[in-house]
C-alpha cells in the first residue's frame, strides 16, 4: 500500500466497517512505520482488472510478535480466495520480520473471518470485552502457533502464490 491508495482504501473501509472504520490519519500513521530501516509494518492492497481496490491488509511486528492490524475484502470478491492471498502475504511478512507468533482480533460475530483464520491454523486464546467501539462488540483473540521451521503460518513461504493478483504489494 502506498499513500495514493489511501482514498480508495478508506472508501472500502467505510463500506465494510461503517461503525468503526479507521481514519485517514491512522492509515497514514501505519504507512509511516512501513518504510525505512526500522520498518515494522507491512500493508498491501489488491486491485481488480479495472484497478479498483478490492482488498487490503496490514501487519505490525514488534518484539517477535506479529499482529494482523486489518484485513478487508470487497463483498463482490468474497469467496474468491482473495482473503487467503492477503493473509498469506501478511504471514510471509511476519516470517520476514522474524516473528515467533502472530496474533489478531476478530469480531465475535464475524464467523466468516474466523473460519478463514482457523484454516490457517489460528487458535482462539481469549476474548476482549467491548473491543470494537462504538458498538461495544467483543473481539475474539486468536494466535497462530510457531511452525517448526521458525516461521508462522500455513503457506507463509509460498510468496509466488500470494503475489499473483496482488498490486502495490511493496511498501518500498
Helix-strand blueprint:
Layout: H1 6-16, H2 24-32, E1 41-47, E2 53-62, E3 65-73, H3 82-96, E4 101-107, H4 111-119, E5 123-132, E6 137-144, H5 159-163
Parallel strand pairs: 3-4
Antiparallel strand pairs: 1-2, 2-3, 4-6, 5-6
Return the structural class: alpha+beta
Oligomeric state of shown chains: single chain
Envelope shape: globular
Q: Which regions are unreliable across 5 or more consecutive residues at pLDDT < 50?
A: 154-172
Reading the helices and strands in chain order gives HHEEEHEHEEH
Give the beta-strand count. 6
**Percentage of residues assigned to helices:** 25-40%
Mean pLDDT, all residues: 87
The major β-sheet equals: 6 strands, mixed
Strand content: 25-35%
Cα(first) to Cα(last) distance is: 9 Å
Question: Can you describe this structure?
Answer:
With 172 residues, the chain is α+β, with helices and mostly antiparallel strands. The chain has helices at residues 6-16, 24-32, 82-96, 111-119, 159-163; strands at residues 41-47, 53-62, 65-73, 101-107, 123-132, 137-144. 28% of the residues lie in helices and 30% in strands. It is globular and about 40 Å long. Mean pLDDT is 87; it is low at 154-172.
Amino acid at each position: 500500500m502506498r499513500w495514493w491508495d489511501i482514498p480508495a482504501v478508506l472508501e472500502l473501509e467505510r463500506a465494510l466497517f461503517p461503525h468503526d472504520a479507521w481514519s485517514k490519519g491512522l492509515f497514514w500513521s501505519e504507512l509511516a512505520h512501513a518504510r525505512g530501516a526500522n520498518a515494522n509494518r507491512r500493508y498491501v492492497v489488491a486491485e481488480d482488472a479495472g484497478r479498483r481496490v478490492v482488498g487490503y491488509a496490514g501487519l505490525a511486528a514488534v518484539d517477535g510478535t506479529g499482529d494482523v492490524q486489518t484485513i478487508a475484502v470487497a463483498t463482490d470478491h468474497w469467496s474468491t480466495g482473495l482473503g487467503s492471498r492477503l493473509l498469506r502475504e501478511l504471514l510471509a511478512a511476519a516470517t520476514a520480520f522474524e516473528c515467533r507468533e502472530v496474533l489478531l482480533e476478530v469480531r465475535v460475530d464475524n464467523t466468516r473471518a474466523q473460519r478463514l483464520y482457523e484454516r490457517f491454523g489460528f487458535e482462539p486464546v481469549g476474548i476482549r470485552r467491548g473491543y470494537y467501539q462504538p458498538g461495544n462488540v467483543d473481539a475474539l483473540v486468536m494466535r497462530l502457533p510457531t511452525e517448526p521451521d521458525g516461521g508462522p503460518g500455513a503457506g507463509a513461504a509460498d510468496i509466488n502464490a500470494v503475489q499473483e493478483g496482488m498490486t502495490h504489494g511493496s511498501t518500498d
